[in-house]
Design goal:
The chain has 264 residues and is of the alpha/beta class. It has ten helices and 13 strands. The protein folds into two domains: 124 residues, Rossmann fold; 130 residues, Orthogonal Bundle (Arc Repressor Mutant, subunit A), CATH 1.10.10.10.
Length: 264
């Protein structure tokens, strides 16, 4: 990792000797390290804008497996490295299968722990880079992450940076319902405060621009009390015209829920 790629790492461990040496080496490498001695709520980890978390599940006791599973499920972009004492093959396999990125057995040299955190962070960065740069086509839209722009019938939607990130997140999620809290964490980068309506405000702005430039299609659908889903569907009279012209339209339109396509 070069000096421009600072790693932000949280360490959840009570092994003071190991953590002290790790912290000194991390500081020398230009890393930002935060230490905790107990479970940190996922929303607080989001607020830290971490690359990875290094955790000894032994410090969490009976809550360890539930916490790890919740962490991997709610923060898929976060690198999770377990560094703990004796464990069984079954435990390691279980953890790796539900989302833990790496598993280190103590005693472990801090340099090895840092190297594994680097590798995990690098894999996550490459994965985000590959998916984030793919162009998406949906309905009349073309979404170009490399240009931070979206086009309808060849015309730019003139989106702000945050509007683009919101649209790209929804479209890349391919018909999944995203909760407001998840959207806020992924786009704004930290946990959503109680009562914050920023997501709804930006969805409204985004819909207005989509309706202006692509009125024949409906893209963003509300799931009341939950969040939003992106599905390109012909709107109103256009859908009626398509049904009249093509008897098979109804069956094929159902497939649009899975047809946010990746273009070269």
């Amino acid at each position: 990792m070069n000096s421009q790629q600072t790693i932000r790492l949280a360490v959840i461990d009570t092994d003071s000797g190991f953590v002290t040496v790790l912290a000194k080496r991390a500081e020398a490498a230009g890393w930002q390290l935060r230490q905790a001695t107990g479970a940190v709520p996922p929303q607080e980890l989001v607020a830290m804008k971490l690359n990875a978390v290094l955790i000894d599940p032994a410090v969490l006791g009976d809550e360890a497996w539930g916490y790890l599973e919740r962490l991997c499920a709610t923060l898929p972009d976060l690198g999770v490295v377990v560094c703990t004492g004796r464990s069984t093959v079954a435990q390691r396999v279980r953890g790796l299968r539900f989302g833990i990125d790496d598993w280190i057995t103590k005693p472990s040299h801090p340099e090895e722990a840092m190297a594994r955190v680097e590798a995990v962070s690098r894999r996550h960065r490459r994965s985000r880079g590959e998916s984030d740069n793919e162009a998406l086509s949906a309905g009349e839209l073309e979404i170009r992450p490399d240009q931070f722009q979206a086009f309808a019938a060849g015309e730019s939607l003139d989106l702000t940076r945050r509007e683009f990130e919101l649209l790209h997140l929804l479209a890349a999620s391919k018909s999944q319902v995203l909760e407001r809290e998840t959207i806020y964490q992924r786009v704004w980068g930290y946990a959503m405060a109680h009562g914050d309506r920023s997501v709804d405000v930006f969805i409204r702005k985004l819909r207005q621009k989509l309706e202006k430039h692509s009125p024949r299609w409906s893209y963003i659908h509300t799931h009341f009390g939950v969040g939003y889903r992106f599905d390109p569907e012909p709107a109103g009279i256009v859908a009626e015209e398509l049904r009249a012209a093509d008897p098979e339209f109804t069956d094929r339109s159902q497939q649009l829920h899975d047809e946010v396509t990746v273009s070269s």
